[in-house]
Amino acid sequence: MQGKCGLFFTSYRGEAQIFQSGFQKLMVGLFAAVLIAVPLGLDNYLVSVMNLIFIAVIGAVSLNLLTGACGQISLGHGAFIGVGAFAAGQCSLHGVPFPLAILSGGLVTALVGMVFGVPSLRLKGIYLAIATLAAQLVLEFVFLHGGEVTGGSNGLLLDPPQMFGFSFDSEIRMYYLLFAFAALSLLMVSNIMRSKYGRAFVSIRDFYLSAEINGVNLFWYKIIAFGVSSFLAGVAGGLWGHYTGYISGEQFNIGLSITYLAMVVIGGLGSVLGSVFGAVFLTVLPEVLNVLANGLSDYIPAITQRVGAIQHGVFGLVLILFLVYEPEGLAHRWRLIKAYWKLYPFAH
Amino acid sequence: MRVGTIITAACAVLIAGLVLTGCGGEEQKPAETAKKEMAPIKVGGLVDMSGATSSVGTPYAEGLKVGVKYVNDNGGIDGRMIEFDLQDTAYDVQKGLSMYKKMVGAGAVCIQGFGSAVTEALIRTLAKDKVPDLSASYSAHLTDPKTAPYNFFTAADYSTQARAAIKHFKDNWTEERAPKIAFIYPDHPYGLAPIAGAKEYAEELGFEVVGDANVSLKAIDATTELLPLKDLGPDYCWIGGTTPSTSVILKSAKNIGMDTTFFINIWGCDENLSKLAGEDAAEGAYSNQAAAVYGQDVPGMKVIMEMTDNQPQMTHFTRGFVSALTMAEGLKRAAAKGPVTGESLKEALETLRDYDPMGLAPAISFFPDDHRPNMAVFLYKVEGGKLTFIKEQILERRADWLGH
Question: Among B26, B147, B192, whose Cβ lies nearest the Cβ of A153?
Fold first, then answer.
């Protein structure tokens, strides 16, 4: 059959499709197949890195919905993830089945996120950033002094997740579980982005006044953005807690919030694919630095012990380089690479 | 566009790096049994050598390294060397977890851990993988094998340390009235860990607990927090913190003329305290320690001096050294019984009874149902800028204190 040269849409429905061409569907399908096959050939360590990536993807895509799509900056995302971890953890400890525990963790976090999102009606930009920073600090305090609920300074110990009598107690089993959750989260956010809600979020981000004139209820949509974003953050937290088997307030500090913000910026604000790139990039970066340092340790013996310190420097440097040279993130770079190959060998 | 190319290239390198790691991982197949007999025993080290606790993590890591070297120089474990892979976790849980996975994947049978963040995040994973972790996070709840079966450490836990000092003060209290005690600590898991247990014991011994003050680990002044405490007139004040935060508290206390006897947690006092706080401010403060200070007259100190070319080392170094020695003792016992695995090492460590790490620390015992290494604490006093040994305070191994 003779195909079209390029993509032409004759309906809005066609344009709004998640996968716009058959080729794209094929590629995504192949990629998913590779991801399903890949852990069988990897050692435990690499599977664990993949697991961390999946959790980071859920966290990053949720923040990207709030900050990238709706333009509401949040410095409290790390704490929201913590709320989900503790809520889901408590549910599990009280015998709630795993899927419901994760769901409840998400819902509790959504509620908390919506409460802390209320100031966003009045506050914008740096002021909102400070308000969400306050949320981070308040929640950190609660984690530490939550008594029985958060385990205080001792934290909470959790068992590996169980579903229908099947225990996810190894890295590979967790891999498939986390993969499923990450895929579902990506699908969910992609779908929100092409719905009425997604368009409202983007309009608020681009110019709140125009959005309001067009009939977008600012307060409602901002709160919804906080709610949905926090829900997914809560899911990520719940998964993290069940994956590591231990949660304490220390894990969900401001550093985590900044890391997620960095993932979103590096990946590309407002892009679902960008969240994936950012999450992969920032999770893999320390591991690669470690490998490099171990490789160099024959020549510079002390370097493996300095990697931690170097890493912070590299992290800062990478962030600055991205802000200066690739402010639209890796997602933009990906589009350029695709365009290059689409037009190959004719550059323009 | 050129910068763009660089970014593309950087991403490509990153991906290639990951792929290479993959290849590296797969090559490490378990050695054949015959070769395994003499193969080195792999031990991973997860220590914070950068980040919030680097000032104490670095000397601790040095102590571990020298300890392992000492064991290897003296014939290793039945002729097998210990291969020590020391990595910097920078007090970052995620980093610690992935480094741990890598070490265990490479065949490590034991982890030498450090800070509470990473150690506690690993509790369940260690139990699942059956890999013992000898850490430097001395939270009491790690001593209960019911919650943390594969966690060990070689110093008395924070609560026991506080209780030991309180006992010493009570024994030397001569006045009629009840002694008053107050607690200064950061609002942080490490700071909070011993408080409940210490208060309970103080009340049991007839102390009057008069108040608390929260001083952050990053504080640069503590006057505001200490003023209300000064009015309560405590005879003794517990300080939980790090050496820098303790020095801030001592300086502020001196400025406001607070007249009390301070006693300081294990990480809050070392050889640098007098330098940071000033000799006047630090004078007379008590310090709980779990290892000898440099130059003390014990057999192990000569070994350390020899191995470090007579360069003065901090007490954290000595604790790292002791942790390595204890691990080696466990490994030797495990090797004597059969193949060395994480599980056999755990069982071997649980057979230790009053193991003496060359006098560098109080004798260490572990039991299958009780991982408290000992109930003994070295009490030191800052005198003329130096840590002077006062006594070894030994408490009863009370069952109700296990894990608290």
Answer: B192
How many domains does chain B fold into?
Answer: 2
B275 shares a domain with B164: yes
| Entry pTM | 0.84
Q: What is the pLDDT of residue B28?
A: 42
Mean pLDDT by 10 residues, chain A (348 residues): 66 82 89 92 89 96 95 94 96 94 96 93 88 94 89 84 86 93 96 94 94 93 96 97 89 92 93 94 88 80 71 85 89 88 75
Long-range contacts of A321-324 (CB under 8 A, 24+ apart): A321/B7, A322/A265, A322/A266, A323/A265
Between positions 36 and 95 of B, the ones with CB within 8 A of A are 48-51, 54, 61, 86-90, 92-95
Let me know the angle formed at the C-alpha of A239 by A238 and A240, rounded to the nearest 5 degrees: 90
3-class SS of residue B364: strand
B234 and B300 in a single domain? The answer is no
Q: Residues of A with CB below 8 A from B24's CB?
A: 291
Number of structural domains in chain A? 1
Q: What is the DSSP string of B133-169?
A: EE-S---GGGG-TTT-TTEE-SS--HHHHHHHHHHHH
φ, ψ for residue B47, nearest 5 deg: -125, 145
Co-location of B265 and B397 in the same domain: yes
Whether B268 and B388 map to the same domain: the answer is yes
In a domain, B284, yes or no: yes
Q: Is residue A274 assigned to a domain? A: no
B393, part of any domain: yes
Are B396 and B275 within one domain?
yes
| CATH classification at residue B74 | 3.40.50.2300
Nearest CA-CA distance, residue B20 and chain A, Å: 9
Contacts of A171 in chain B (CB under 8 A): 101
Range of the domain at B101: 39-156+296-373
From chain B, the residues in CB contact with A38 under 8 A are none
CA dihedral A218, A222, A227, A232 (to 10 degrees): 140
Structural domain including A112 reads 44-248+255-265
Same domain, B275 and B362: no
For residue A120, what is the enclosing H or E element?
A: none
**Residues B120 and B267 reside in one and the same domain:** no
Please tell me the distance from the alpha carbon of residue A105 to that of residue A90, in angstroms, as a whole number: 9
**Does residue A131 belong to any structural domain of this protein?**
yes
What span, in angstroms and rounded, lies between the C-alpha atoms of A261 and A130?
A: 14
| ipTM value for the complex | 0.76
Query: Would residue B368 count as lying in a domain?
Result: yes
pLDDT digit string (tens) for B114-166?
Answer: 988 889 889 988 998 999 999 999 989 899 999 899 999 999 999 999 999 99
Chain A neighbors of B120, CB-CB under 8 A: 155, 246, 248
Residues 123-152 of B with CB under 8 A from A: 123-125, 128, 139, 141, 147
pLDDT tens for B270-286 read 888 988 988 889 999 99
